[in-house]
Design goal:
alpha+beta; five-stranded mixed β-sheet; five-stranded mixed beta barrel; globular; 24% strand
Length: 483
């Protein structure tokens, strides 16, 4: 999808900055670290010990946005002599710096996760750690949790293990550059294998009934003092990279289940027949051919988000899936439900400990299990609290609200104008919906729309902008009416 950008007036930018400050105040977002936490970070850096296992011979590389400094993952991919593949996947060892009960630990439990706003980032850990000796930046020897996955020639995992090791990344790559190198055939084999392994893992995912929905993201960026709002379609390499992370999360879940203690990210299948029937009705209404016997997962994986009708279906149908939850267990008391429906397997978060609290705990459980050791007591003691802690995380709310504010700022001076758009969501509980969500192609906006007549999902509409105010205190800062 072609990237479209919309520049804001100075008045709109000032309003957006004020609205973002109000949002952070509303979310009680701490934008600075207390002095005692910063002091603890310096002490932790001085006291850190590197693992005895030396894996610095592995020529690891990272793939992240160009400006990222808190690098959680590095990888090295190779073919196995007997066939198949080996994936070396290093994860930042945050527990080497953040000790249980320390000021750093307490602060991380207050923050839960890194928050991203268009004008600044609010990190989970002090940058002196997360963007320094804990980050997998190139050319520095750091502690890591080093995963090793062995795959057969079809991409199925035959063995996974993880242990502590000191590692050194040699290259900081970015998605755009890796995509270009792979397509041009100039990527070195460890990088080029990401496409080969990623596609195999996508096929494995589809075969087990997993769902990957890659809708274009609305992205708000601040560059050269100017905010920009755009739709950004994911590159294929981002999906291949995500497959490595998903593979590790599934391996971690299996290790914890086998060891008898852990925390999973679970999601049940949608059992409400009315919801299931509505999903089928949506597909029919949009002219999407859902053949008998084809599963929901297979249908979703066959659709193209660049097709407006497909995007409307994906936007509507995925909102009706049951929300994922955190499920903990210990002492071999395995819960009845362990799977994540969209992934179609047990799964956990474990690959982003610099940016998410829970990953430090799952990593420790897996390292202990693979070493044949009992889980650390401090991890077991925290298990029952972690679901509530993670529920306090504000990342998704901050992301969505920040985009809402940017949309309102982009259109602040255009009230009364009419835009062409596509209805991608309607009020599901209403048999004759008159409210929903409209997707504008240009500018990159999705907003609330009301109509005097019934709104048809997937319909092209002329949408008149009736309100756009980032400082509006009501529910909808941006609102359209059909004309």
């Amino acid at each position: 999808m072609r990237r479209r950008q919309m520049h804001m007036s100075r008045e709109a930018q000032d309003a957006l900055l004020q609205a973002l400050q109000q949002l952070r105040a509303e979310l009680k977002t701490p934008t600075e670290f207390p002095a005692h936490v910063l002091e603890a970070a310096e002490a932790a850096k001085a006291a850190v010990q590197l693992p005895a296992k030396d894996a610095t011979h592995l020529p690891l590389f990272t793939i992240d946005p160009p400006t990222s400094k808190d690098l959680d993952q590095a990888m090295y991919l190779e073919r196995r002599a007997g066939g198949g593949y080996r994936v070396h996947y290093a994860i930042a060892d945050v527990a080497a710096f953040v000790k249980p009960g320390s000021p750093l630990d307490a602060e991380a439990h207050d923050r839960i996760e890194t928050l991203y706003f268009p004008d600044l980032k609010v990190p989970l850990h002090p940058p002196s750690i997360s963007e320094g000796p804990a980050s997998l930046l190139p050319d520095q020897v750091v502690p890591a949790l080093l995963w090793q996955h062995d795959l057969d020639a079809d991409g199925h995992v035959t063995d996974s293990t993880v242990s502590r090791a000191k590692v050194r990344s040699l290259a900081k790559l970015d998605y755009q550059g890796v995509q270009q190198d792979i397509e041009a055939g100039t990527a070195e084999e460890p990088v080029a294998l990401l496409r080969e392994i990623g596609k195999l893992r996508e096929a494995v995912e589809a075969a087990r009934g997993g769902v990957s929905v890659n809708l274009p993201d609305q992205e708000v960026t601040l560059k050269d003092g100017s905010f920009r709002l755009s739709y950004v379609a994911a590159l294929p390499v981002e999906g291949w990279n995500e497959q490595i992370s998903l593979m590790t999360g599934m391996a971690a879940a299996r290790i914890m289940l086998d060891s008898g203690a852990g925390i999973l990210r679970t999601q049940k299948e949608q059992a409400d027949q009315q919801v299931v029937q509505r999903v089928h009705d949506i597909a029919k209404h949009l002219g999407i051919d859902w053949k008998p016997g084809v599963t929901y997962a297979a249908l979703v994986n066959s659709l193209d988000p660049a097709d407006p009708k497909h995007m409307a279906f994906l936007s509507e149908a995925t909102t009706m899936l049951l929300k994922a939850e955190y499920t903990t267990f210990r002492d071999h008391r395995i819960p009845e439900h362990t799977a994540h429906a969209a992934i179609a397997a047990p799964y956990t978060y474990c690959t982003a400990p610099l940016r998410r609290l829970i990953d430090r705990y799952t990593g420790e459980l897996c390292v202990a299990a693979c070493a044949g050791q009992a889980p650390p007591p401090w991890v077991l003691d925290a298990l029952h609290c972690l679901p509530c802690d993670m529920a306090r995380g504000k990342g998704k709310v901050a992301d969505r609200r920040a985009v809402d504010l940017a949309e309102a700022a982009v259109l602040k001076n255009r009230v009364g104008e009419v835009f062409g758009g596509l209805v991608i969501n309607t009020d599901a509980e209403d048999n004759r919906p008159k409210e929903g969500t409209v997707h504008l192609a240009d500018p990159a906006v999705m907003g609330r729309i009301t109509s005097g007549a019934e709104l048809d999902l997937g319909a092209s509409v002329q949408a008149k902008l009736t309100r756009a105010d980032p400082l509006f205190t009501g529910k909808n800062k941006i609102l359209f009416n059909t004309v």
